[in-house]
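It is worth pausing here to work through a concrete case rather than discussing structure prediction in the abstract. The textbook approach is simple: state the sequence, then state the predicted structure, then interpret. We follow exactly that order.
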Amino acid sequence: EHIKKRKGKKMLMSILSRKYPKKILILLEKHNKLYFSEINKYIPIHKGSLSRILSELVENELLTKWEEEPNKKMSKTYYSLTNKGKKALLLYKIEEELENLDDNENSIIN
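Step two, the predicted structure:
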């Protein structure tokens, strides 16, 4: 059980460290909810790749998805951030802060 959970966390960090999941999470933070083709307009990558990334984000509970009209044949599938997804965005903010530390703040004073 503990090993399984640890592996999941490692996988989560590897997902978050990739370019497109980061772009998707930031995009959904700005727009609250978007459907697949809207996301694809902002992030113009192969539809199959985008679908795979979105599924991975849903599986890891960073995004939630739902259909506008489930009984309709061509219903739009919407995506939005979960609380976990919003928390994951904090990691990007921390990463940015760490990268922006200047050498004076980062040097050891003797």
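Step three, interpretation. The chain has a mean pLDDT of 87. Residues 5 and 13 are 13 Å apart (CA to CA).
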